[in-house]
Amino acid sequence: MASFPAYPAHPGPPGGEQAPGAPRHPHWWQRPWVRYGAPTMLLALSGLVILALVRRQTGTEGFLVGLGLAVLPVPLLLAAFRWLDRVEPGPWRNLIFAFAWGACAAALIAIVANSFATRWIATATADPSSADTLGATVVAPIVEESAKATAVLLVFLFRRRDFTGIVDGVVVAGVTATGFAFTENILYLGNAFGTDQLSGERGLSSVTAATFFVRVVMAPFAHPLFTVFTGIGFGVAALSAERRRLLRVLLPLAGLLLAMGMHAMWNGSSSFGEYGFFAVYGTFMVPAFGLLTFLVIWTRQRELRTVRAELPAYAAAGWLTPPEPYVLGSMRARRIARQYAAHHFGRAAARSVARYEACATSLAFLRHRGRRGRAGADFVVRERELLQELWRRREVARPSLAYAARATAPAVPPPWPPYGHGRGGYGYGYVPPQPSARDGRSYPGQDPAAPRPAYDPYRP
Once rounded to an integer, what is the mean pLDDT over residues 72-81? Predict the structure, then answer.
């Protein structure tokens, strides 16, 4: 484990030398064309196969109807998970990979494995009805949750820098499950439409309408809810110290088993009697969904508090300006900064400000793990990379953040404690900012009767 530096060095012009510890000659599997090309080819091949299988089962017309109905909840679910990820947004490529894995690879694995296992059980027991029930309540939860969990595992292993906590696990798991549910809904709705075509049913009494109501209206969050438990297990493992290897293995397994249990209960609800489905839905599914939603939102607020608590160290060292820890710890202030940049400097500037905010958040989380003894061996290298990312974007980001600070400045003291020798800090010598001549406010530690010199927080 790397030693945790007590003082972040004062900024200077970023150098062009190679960061210490960076590999000079990466292995063949670390080359970009391998890391991106191989998964892309695998997912594309899986997509073509799953497309052919679903179309074969539903027919062309059923496939188109199922596709049109199944896509309806997808934008809402993706927007919800992206909203949860706004504090430290992960790269889009991770979310695209997760959705594609769920919709293509995991769905293909589930269709092939479930069909094979159900046929084998029916042959071994000579009881097709029992085989279908056993396949739905035992085989399907194990196969499907394991297939979806593979995407979370791959991001956890190969995109470790982007996977830093519970929210990251929830987002990756939820997006993967959303893709899986999308493909599964196409299959179910397409088959239901084919059944209605044979029976002549139309309108609200049709099998298609009933399937749409259950899978899209009542429980569009079912698959994401199950897999989120796996994501939470990986998220807690990401927060654990690297030396606690057994715990980092057991936590994801515990989350996966919980996901399988919830999935099995949901699939088996129809066998609990006439009202078994509604009993399971009201007793377990809705409360679990509400509890997880509360947990994730609470975790997001805790992340914002971490940003406000950790960034003043870098403000004291000169990497950030004094108001920035407050601005970066407020989602409203961050949004105002991006809007200001887009209005005055263009969309490219707004993207640069968004990147600045994301890097500052990652920096706060990195330092938080370091203070708790959970930083990896690349702590110093990663900290330097993030600081240089901030320094390169300061010319555009700082005026925007300054405007957001003035627009959202609170009338109460900032929420972070003072830093400095003898004041309970880490020895950064933090000095509270002077008041701005533009707004006339006073800050903690400032005598209101003292002279108020003009202060430009963004002067070099």
Answer: 94
